[in-house]
Design goal:
The protein has a two-stranded antiparallel sheet. It is mainly α.
């Protein structure tokens, strides 16, 4: 036994002794308090809750947990040690988030993201309009990592086109959101896609590959349904995207060479290159292609009229690190063609750190171990554990009204339970996304539901049924769990 193992074992033994009086009701006090405070906070602040107040509430939840710990004679030093260990475990995820922001910035100014939008819009056809909406929004959401941005830009345009074709607003909105959330789930640029494995203790690209097993069948069924609807639904008119295409083409140098960069990154992912390496190469290649294909844009972002070494250097570094926007003649496209760079990821990083503080204290006082034991007693089977996770995510989307919290709280509560059951963290992170991320848009008072309903001008009740991908995803993950399909075990884990 190594010295490190001895220390870990000693700390674990010490924790068991100090927390021997902690019961399930004491363990749940911080969780109940946290959910209550978060629900009220989101009610008061609405969409602005993620600007910082939710993060502080997580720290307040940690304070409640610490109070429970003090009453059970757990030392401040021990709780702090668990917090430090929790934060240390997320170092890779935090660095990846920063590189994701950098990549998004250079992919914008290089024209890669605009090129995806440009070519995606050209596949529209009245008969397959709804299916095309799913595909277009999926492509754009994968490229941007944001379902919100996709809906607020191309989504609005597609709803308008659908209305002109005589297609129900609810149908079009449902197709838009189905595609947008598919892309949001599968994009390494998405904050929720990074957050889920961070909470579960997994790795980003492993999470994405494993999530594909439930996500691909779900989006395939969604597309099939919309294709059937398209062939049975009467449409009239022509899908007019000429203005948008002209604006994009006049603002960027659009060409097929730009797709070399995403292809390289995809190949690196397939070859299982380290995530940070793949993102760094994608960022640097994006910068090079920006200098080659969009010199005027880079010069403008760099504060100059013409491209030279100084303006090129400033322009690329600004795209990587801070807010960047490429203005067009179409106000609706200006939001799409903007990026926060590395600075834009700081809000999510802040959320993760504060969640780790709460989780670390809960771990230090023995609350997570007690909750895990109770969950394992209640969930006698693997399916029961998955079902409990799905139920918790749905409940938090309804009560706490925020998809991030529907990932953070169950992620920390269930991570130990999955480990005790001998299940790899990818099982938990996939379930969090399948039930927490995508269903948030189906709750009218959730920040996601309220946002998309307001942006698209369609009530949640009108698009609920047609947001097929979103409500089908939890059923798909439970189907896989029930029939033990692609349930990854921990290496050398003993069966629970």
């Amino acid at each position: 036994m190594t010295q490190k193992t001895k220390k870990a074992k000693y700390r674990q033994d010490e924790q068991v002794v100090e927390n021997r009086e902690l019961n399930i009701w004491e363990a749940l006090i911080p969780v109940v308090a946290l959910v209550g405070m978060l629900a009220y906070n989101v009610y008061v602040f609405g969409d602005d809750a993620l600007s910082g107040s939710n993060q502080f509430i997580l720290l307040m939840g940690g304070a409640v947990a610490a109070t429970v710990g003090f009453f059970n004679k757990v030392s401040y030093k021990q709780m702090l040690a668990e917090v430090a260990e929790n934060v240390r475990s997320t170092t890779g995820a935090l660095l990846i988030l920063l590189m994701v922001g950098a990549l998004a910035g250079t992919w914008l100014v290089s024209g890669i993201i605009p090129a995806m939008v440009y070519y995606g819009l050209q596949i529209l056809n009245p008969t397959i309009f709804l299916a095309a909406c799913v595909i277009i929004c999926a492509i754009i959401s994968i490229a941007t990592g944001s379902s919100w941005t996709t809906a607020a830009t191309v989504g609005i345009a597609l709803v308008g086109i659908g209305e002109a074709l005589g297609i129900s607003l609810g149908m079009t909105a449902g197709a838009v959101l189905s595609g947008a959330y598919f892309g949001d789930k599968m994009s390494p640029l998405s904050d929720t896609t990074n957050l889920a494995p961070a909470m579960a203790g997994g790795e980003l690209f492993s999470h994405i590959r494993y999530m594909a097993w439930t996500t691909i069948p779900t989006i395939s069924i969604t597309l099939l349904v919309f294709i059937i609807i398209g062939f049975t639904n009467d449409t009239s008119g022509v899908a007019d995207t000429g203005t948008i295409l002209t604006t994009i083409n006049s603002s960027f140098n659009i060409n097929g060479w730009l797709f070399i960069v995403p292809v390289v990154v995809i190949l690196l992912i397939v070859r299982k290159a380290p995530p940070l390496l793949g993102l760094l190469i994608g960022t640097l290649l994006g910068g090079v292609f920006a200098l080659i294909f969009q010199p005027d844009i880079v010069a403008k972002i760099g504060g100059g009229a013409h491209l030279d070494f100084a303006t090129g250097y400033r322009g690329i570094l600004n795209a990587i690190t801070v807010d960047t926007a490429v203005e067009t003649s179409d106000p609706a496209l200006n939001e799409l063609f903007s990026s926060g760079g590395m600075a834009g990821m700081l809000g999510t990083i802040w959320l993760i750190v504060c969640a780790m503080v709460f989780g670390g204290i809960m771990d230090g006082i023995g609350a997570l171990q007690r909750i895990t034991k109770s969950l394992l007693n209640l969930a006698k089977t693997t399916f029961g554990l998955f079902a409990s996770t799905v139920g918790s995510c749905l409940a938090l989307n309804v009560t706490a009204s925020d998809q991030y919290l529907a990932l953070v709280v169950p992620g920390k509560m269930f991570s130990k339970a999955y480990e005790e059951r001998g299940l790899a963290p990818e099982n938990l992170s996939r379930t969090l996304e399948d039930s927490g991320t995508v269903t948030s848009v189906l709750v009218p008072w959730n920040t996601c539901g309220a946002y998309h309903s307001g942006v698209l001008g369609v009530a949640v009740g009108d698009y609920f049924f047609y947001a097929i991908f979103n409500w089908l995803s939890p059923f798909m993950t439970l189907f896989f769990a029930a029939f033990k399909i692609k349930i990854k075990q921990l290496v050398n884990a003993s069966k629970a």
